[in-house]
Write a structure and sequence with these properties.
The structure is a single chain. 29% of the residues lie in helices and 22% in strands. The N and C termini lie far apart (70 Å). The chain binds FE2/S2 (inorganic) cluster. FE2/S2 (inorganic) cluster binds next to loops.
């Protein structure tokens, strides 16, 4: 039998027993303690660092050698970072990566604040949208002739006859393909209840019919409850909207962080985790399934509804989330030629997936556009409807992987580009998710170069001290640093020694946003030159993708730029333009539309015609493959400068410093660009 050891996590005091050989981070997870990770436990991000206590603590004799010695990967990681950890005041003798150190004796572990996982502030509320309510699931009230010796028709046949009559009478016109009695299917769980239900209701019953062809629920007497859920599974957060299928009203909204973040912050890390671990797929699938069931349970309880009342669910997510939700491998999606298992939409019984709904209910997944342009983007299209407009729209859903669509009713093109996790605060020296304690907005005074910032707090609580900086603030900070001249258009610091905030740090020049005494981590929070580089790489990939997509569509300048997604809703459009994240567009034509993917899921839940429209869109949209575009590298290099090496940004030209031509940029232009327009 495997030996077990006691593990205590401080400062929470959570303790429990785990088998010898368990990684500390896995032990923490099993005991409900969240420790950060960005690299899928590859010993490269350092977010999971902890301290091993040496000595007796709370009745446990802990020792440094009660965890396994460092392997090569961990040694290499620390060799590069020792000075930085010392600077943080951490005792490096006791410092370990919790994803690498394995338990081999009783141990007490201290999780520093910078490594603690937080409940992210999930901002995914439903938007007011006009939806023509024509759901796939509809309830009918049926009064049947009782069975008699003279007419001993089977109960199901008798019900089918009566139901078809009612459907012809009250079905929603052309939308109701009234079936013949023989065309109606009955779910097995309904079949088993039919005989009792009709008699208990004195031959008066209510049934729910899915897609005009299958009876999925039967109740004695009159009932008109019919509910459905629209679910948006994002890489970072999951949002669920519980809707009344008859009225279309959103009766409850629930959201939470995607627990898969414990396995890596971006989709690439999770795909790697799945491939590298024998039980990787099961762990990732279970995590998302449990989260969806948790949200569903909360929403139903909030509305005092039963599990059986949930008659359908529509799910959207990027291709990786889609596959993991369906318990399908992402191994081949991550390798050239990056092909998903399926493109088409799918209807699958909730019970087959383990969704805690009415056992006969269906889960509908919207189709996938391209390898990395998923069902979430189809949701965005259903919500924003570029295919019904004359204006040329550029729609950008920003995440660790950005999905872009351009066009109008005549033609639509899509592509995707990895932007890395920098926009979400990862790979940034003091980056963190949008959680309590994160700096979320930054402004810098033009004259004094002093910053002002706001910190995310919990509900009405007083603003806490800063412990890091989240994506929207990193974009703010770098844009402001460029605007006021702390960095130049190439991202280099303008070296000066007269201000303590601008200084040489561990990694080169840096600008201090918050000094130690303003923070809860006992250290200054600077934006380093390396952070600026990370933002340059991310914004450059995004801009180059948008530029090539517009070029392929033959569009000089889009009429509107739409920023979709919760993150898009928190970016300041002016700062995005100053950085050159998005093509030059008048600020008044840049719109943030919030969680359009979730809205699209809701639209598909409430209007079945939209599901057909989604399939037509996926069939018609033209996919642009950036990896094979010979111009992508050039465009990427050109976009590294703020806001761009060659493109004028007239919409924000008055806001940014007039700079001398950058000689490096000029040389690149001379060498590689004949027509920079
Ligand atoms: S180094 Fe441990 S999770 Fe990244």
């Amino acid at each position: 039998m495997t030996q077990e050891h006691i593990v205590v996590f401080q400062p929470s005091g959570v303790r429990g027993k785990v088998p010898a050989g368990t990684h500390l981070r896995a032990a923490a997870r099993s005991l409900g303690v969240e420790i950060e990770s960005v690299c899928a436990e590859n010993a490269t991000c350092g977010q999971c660092r902890i301290l091993v206590e040496d000595g007796r603590r709370g009745g446990v004799a802990s020792a440094l050698d009660h965890v396994t010695p460092m392997g090569v990967d961990e040694q290499e990681f620390f060799a590069k970072r020792t000075k930085a950890w010392k600077r943080l005041g951490l005792d490096i003798e006791r410092l370990r990566l919790s994803c690498q150190a394995e338990v081999c004796g009783d141990v007490v572990v201290f999780v520093p604040e910078s490594s603690r996982g937080n409940r992210q502030i999930v901002r995914k509320s439903a938007t007011e949208r006009l939806i023509d309510v024509r759901p796939t699931v509809r309830r009918y009230y049926v009064e049947m002739e009782p069975a008699t010796l003279a007419k001993p028709l089977a109960d199901v046949a008798r019900l089918a006859d009566a139901l078809v009559e009612v459907m012809e009478r009250v079905g929603d016109g052309a939308n109701c393909i009234a079936p013949g009695p023989d065309d109606l299917r009955f779910d097995y769980t309904v079949l088993r209840r039919v005989s009792d239900a009709v008699r208990e209701g004195d031959w008066k019953i209510s049934v729910a019919v899915w897609n005009d062809c299958e009876v999925i629920d039967i109740r004695s007497g009159y009932h008109d409850e019919a509910y459905g859920a629209a679910v948006d599974i994002g890489s970072t957060a999951i949002a669920l909207y519980l809707c009344d299928l008859a009225s279309g009203e959103v009766v409850a909204t629930e959201s939470m962080m995607n627990p898969q973040t414990a396995f890596g912050d971006d989709i690439m890390s999770r795909m790697t985790y799945q491939v590298d671990n024998e039980d990787g797929l099961a762990a990732l699938h279970d995590a998302v399934l449990t989260a969806v069931n948790t949200l569903l349970g909360r929403a139903l309880r909030r509305c005092k509804l039963e599990v059986d009342d949930l008659l359908e669910m529509v799910v959207v997510g990027n291709t990786t989330m889609h596959h993991l939700f369906l318990n399908m491998t992402t191994a081949h999606l991550g390798l050239a030629p990056f092909v998903p298992t399926m493109h088409r939409s799918l209807d699958i019984k909730a019970r087959d997936l383990g969704i805690e709904a009415n056992p006969a209910a269906y889960v509908h997944l919207l189709p996938i556009e391209a390898s990395f342009v998923g069902a979430d983007n189809v949701g965005v299209l259903l919500a924003e409807e570029p295919h019904h407009q004359d204006d040329e729209l550029l729609i950008i859903d920003i995440g660790t992987n950005a999905e872009l669509v351009v066009g109008n009713r005549k033609r639509l093109l899509c592509t995707s580009t990895p932007t890395g996790p920098a926009f979400e605060g990862a790979h940034i020296e003091y980056g963190m998710r949008a959680a309590p304690g994160a700096i979320e907005r930054v402004r810098i005074d033009d004259d004094t170069l002093e910053p002002t910032y706001t910190v995310i707090s919990v509900d009405d609580e007083e603003s806490p001290q800063a412990k890091g900086i989240c994506g929207s603030a990193i974009i703010d900070a770098v844009a402001e640093m460029f605007r006021v001249g702390i960095i130049d258009s190439s991202g280099r610091f303008v070296e000066r020694t007269d201000l303590p905030r601008i200084r040489q740090g561990e990694f080169g020049w840096e600008y201090v946003v918050a000094f130690e005494e303003e923070t809860s981590i006992g250290h200054d929070i600077p934006i380093t030159i390396q952070d600026v580089r990370q933002i340059q790489l991310a914004k450059s990939a995004l801009y180059a993708a948008a530029h090539i997509l517009l070029r392929e569509a033959g569009i000089q300048r889009p009429d509107k730029v739409i920023l979709a997604g919760a993150f898009g809703a928190h970016i300041d459009p002016t700062q995005a333009l100053i950085l050159g994240m998005i093509p030059d567009t008048p600020i008044s034509d840049v719109y943030a539309v919030g969680n359009a993917a979730g809205d699209g899921a809701r639209i598909a839940l409430l209007n079945r015609d939209k599901r057909r429209e989604a399939m037509e869109l996926v069939g018609a949209i033209q996919r642009v493959e950036l990896p094979v575009d010979p111009d992508f590298q050039n465009q990427f290099m050109l976009a590294l400068n703020f806001p761009h090496m060659a493109h004028p940004f007239s919409s924000i030209a008055h806001l940014i410093p007039a700079s001398e031509p950058d000689p490096v940029a000029q040389r690149f232009l001379d060498l590689h660009v004949n027509d920079p327009s």
